[in-house]
Amino acid sequence: TLSRYPVADCDPTSTDSVGCVLSTSQLLHLGDEQRRDPDISRLIQQLESSPQDASVRMFTLKDHTLYRRNLSPHGHDLLLVIPKHLRSTVLRELHDAPTTGHLGVSRTYDRVRRRFYWPGLSRSVRRYVNACEICQRRKKPSRLPSRYLQPIDIPSEPFFRVGLDLLGPFPTSASGNKWVAVATDYATRYAVTRAMPTSCATDVADFLLRDLILVYGAPRQLLTDRGRTFLSKVVDDILRSCSTQHKLTTSYHPQTNGLTERLKPHL
Asked: What SUPFAM superfamilies does this protein's entry cite (predicted)?
């Protein structure tokens, strides 16, 4: 085994690790500062008069200074109890100082709780970090902020806007069909369907013309995805001849044609 000089045991209440946070003067007079804080002073009085009381069992006095026992395996065994007027100093030194790097809420909280304690510590750290002007100015969010939903308006008349989509392929039926064309009216939610042998442009165009336009009239708008079938010349020619505006959904976002998409499971 390697030999080394013996290392002295670390005193958990040693001020060495907190000296970079609180000044020597503040540490020397911390016990007096604690007694000037009404809440801490009341706690000290209760600890001195009834040390076995459950409400103060986690606290102890050492060298005229109040500490709280640390239940976590991380950090000091005894945590300095910080008066209200010194809490901003602790937060500033453990968040704003050049050696601390303006860490986020969780990492700043971890730094503080390893050495210090006060009631509502987590809330204090969160408020302080979230209010840090430098963090707000220089730290960019890791993802883009959410945008407001933009629902499609409901048409005021039937067959003004129609959603068109294909469902399949299915196992071939006795009639030789493997696909289902679905057209949904956005005003009434009325659906028109047809079973088809293929999903080619000519079959879709025939469905569009015979089952929809010649029966209910040409819609003002036709909403489809960007599939090759719907972008074909034969479908485009029919829509142009009927003065129907062809609206396309966003790529990889079928929710744009949500009404038709929602009908698919029922079919």
From this structure: Ribonuclease H-like
What is the structure's pLDDT at 22? 79
Please say whether the beta carbons of 12 and 77 come within 8 A.
Answer: yes
Task: Quote the DSSP letter at residue 229.
Answer: T
Q: How far apart are CA 254 and CA 264, in angstroms?
A: 12
* 35 and 130 part of one domain: yes
pLDDT of 33: 92
First to last CA, the chain: 75
Contact 65, 116 (CB under 8 A): no
**CB neighbour list of residue 54: distance below 8 Å, 6 or more residues apart:** none
Whether residues 40 and 121 share a domain: the answer is: yes
> Around 21, how many Cα atoms within 13 Å sit in the side-chain half-sphere?
22
Q: Contact at 8 Å (CB) between 152 and 126? A: no
Whether residue 254 contacts residue 159, with contact meaning beta carbons closer than 8 Å, is answered with: no
Place of tokens 């005021």: 156
Q: What is the pLDDT of residues 10-21, one digit of tens each?
A: 443 343 455 567
Domain boundary among 77, 105, 138: 138
Q: Print the domain residue range for 39.
A: 24-138
Is the model's pTM score more than 0.85? no
Q: SS3 for 48-75, per residue?
A: HHCCCCHHHCCEEEECCEEEEECCCCCC
Rounded Cα distance between 31 and 91, Å, is 20
